[in-house]
Amino acid sequence: MPWKTMDVREQRVGFVVAAYRREKTLAELCREFGISRPVGYEWLKRYRQGGVAAMAERSRRPQHSPGRTEERLEQRVLELRQRYPDWGARKLRVLLQREGIELGRNTIHRILLRHDLVHGEDRHEPAVERFERKAPNELWQMDFKGPKLWHQKVGPLSVIDDHSRYVIVLKAVASTHTEQVQEPLVAAFCEHGVPEAMLMDHGTPWWSVHSAGGMTKLSLWLMRQGIGLHWSRVRHPQTQGKVERFHGELQRALARRRVLVPDAQLWLDQFRWEHNHVRPHEARTC
Description:
CATH superfamily of the largest domain: Ribonuclease H-like superfamily/Ribonuclease H
CATH class of the largest domain: Alpha Beta
Distance between the termini: 79 Å
Number of strands: 5
Shape: rod-shaped
Largest sheet: 5 strands, mixed
Strand content: 5-15%
Order of helices and strands: HHHHHHEEEHEHEHH
CATH architecture of the largest domain: 2-Layer Sandwich
Number of domains: 3
Number of helices: 10
CATH topology of the largest domain: Nucleotidyltransferase, domain 5
Structural class: alpha/beta
């Protein structure tokens, strides 16, 4: 029928005009226009109350959504996400709980989705199970972060306690020379004690293909401190899962936060403190 090609308001005006002519019954008109009788009565009511202007399509959005998060709470979620752009709903929920605000993880995630604040790389399921040593200082994991998004050719040196995931060292180093690594390790030993063992990959300066057993000046020095040395399997970074995950967090922070190059070490110090004392996880001090 011709009216099906009209827009919504034209269709409704046509119905009202035909109804006022009284040439057909209301039931006949409703069948002709393909609507129910209650809808027909509603259109006539709108016309009587507001004329043609009232015939436009109205928003179907409810005036009140009891399930919608309060605006002030939603704003607080957005403020925290802006402060920590590399943190997801699970961590933000803990910060909100510290402020006495109870919001479900899914609710927070929906707020972030609604404001287009969920990055593609964040849309993944968490690991099902993780393994750790039974006590602090049983094992430290050590590695250099890759230089991506870093202002130097060598990324920061990281040392993490395997049991607590406490970041012991996060140091900007100019090179992988023994002295550059030894200095922050000495400071860490003085502050946290000497670990029973350390886990590393096959990179410099703690591994060499040119010496017996892969020993280097640094690895021999570590052994003289009474530290047992372990190396991860070649091309198996998951062996050093905790330090690798930390480097992933650091990478996201570098990508989403502003880092001033002259204050790079200060930025790393603040990030380390935030990771150890603010970021929600099961970390315990060593």
